[in-house]
Amino acid sequence: MALTSGLGGQLSIDLGALARNWRALDKVSAGALTAAVVKADAYGTGIEQASKALHAAGARFFFVATPDEGMAVRAAVPDAHIFILYGLYPGAANLYIRQNLMPVLSSMSMLEEWMAKCIERNEAYPAAFHFDTGINRLGFRLNEASLVRESIEKLGYAPQMVMSHLACADTPNHEKNRTQLALFGSVMSQFPGIPASLANSAGLMTGRDYHFQMVRPGIALFGGRAVGGRKNPMQPVVTLHVPILQVTEGRTGESVGYGATYTLNRNSKLAILGYGYADGFLRSLSGTNPRPGGKVFIRGKHCPVIGRISMDLTVVDVTELGSDLPTPGEGAEVLGVNVSVDDQADAAGTIGYEILTSLKGRYSRNYVGDGNIPE
User: Which residue out of 117, 176, 258, 301 is catalytically annotated?
Assistant: First the structure.
């Protein structure tokens, strides 16, 4: 691929694919509302553009981490229903109310402050309640369920939703999924008639028992693999091409990159990419002699990363291209149809979430399509 004017990398984000992914998940979750999780700048794809595309596709409920993210969604999609997963920041209730943001309350102190604001303004402002069913992160403890219920009953307050989060949904047969489902059922018995939400992307795909009244897909929307050991059914959303700066030769016995962690075992052709860890290409994708690293796609073949990835540069071995060598200014596919987000994640020993949310590099962004696609 020739890059435009040979200037830097090019990240393409297919908003049509994003919309199709949401609609596909919405069909799977038929009977439950399908929200969209767009925290972390919509998993690196751009929260404003992604939110607009998802809204055009049919999403009306959005989950973000922070109030700032919530305000970005509000500016992009004025009629969205927006939940703040971090809950209520101390002293920030007025901001949430002005921006029509719903905190996901997870502690007694959050609940007390939110109820106090409701009393002060004589208005039952909406919020969700988050209970920890076994992941030990944010959330009311299970033994606080009756106390939470008693506190809101005194005020005649009802939450918009009660939710929890699965710890092992990416492994569908994990016993902890069934344990958390049972524990969540016990919580829900304290809040009869209140809508419930438990399933993330993987939970949505695991089974209808986890769907309740709302599902909250995130990674699957953006083309990442949600469930381990299965073929990923989602369409890729991001494509990244980075520039080849130089093609050079290396001789047998010479080392490549910082630390001399890779030694050439043959005379080789090397392509130097203008792309490094400052652009989101993780150092864990570096290739050593005993351990292969990531790969990129050049002229119809996968080419391995060799040596340490540095701040600005990555070296790949293009010897197998033979005489069909790339030229400076040509693009190497780092993410796309031929090298998926999960391919790079597997090579790095991480997950697709980290690959996507690292997309903050020195490259131009190009948005393709939108959410207004035929059914």
Answer: 258
Strand partners, 164: none
The answer to whether 154 is a known catalytic residue is no
Residues 6+ positions from 280 with CB-CB distance below 8 Å = 44, 355, 358, 359, 360, 361
Question: What b-and-e string marks burial along 164-192, b requiring 16 or more CB atoms within 10 Å of the CB?
Answer: bbbbbbbebeeeebeebbebbeebbebbe
pLDDT reported for residue 375: 47
H or E element, residue 94: helix 93-98
Pick from 48, 72, 149, 162: nearest CA to 108: 149
Average pLDDT taken over every residue of the chain: 95
Which residue among 39, 52, 269, 295 is the active-site one? Answer: 39
Walk me through the domains of the chain, giving residue ranges and CATH numbers: 31-222 (3.20.20.10), 238-368 (2.40.37.10)
Contact indicator for 276, 309 with CB cutoff of 8 Å: yes
Q: Which two tokens stand for residue 114?
A: 């939110």
Residues of the chain with pLDDT under 70: 1-6, 371, 373-375
Distance of alpha carbon 230 from alpha carbon 226, whole angstroms: 9
Helix (H, G, I), strand (E, B) or coil at 66: coil
Residues 96 and 110: beta-carbon distance below 8 Å: no
Q: Are 364 and 11 within 8 A, CB to CB?
A: yes
| 137 annotated ligand-binding residue | yes
DSSP class of residue 160 equals S
User: Could you identify the residue written with the tokens 């944010």?
Assistant: 138
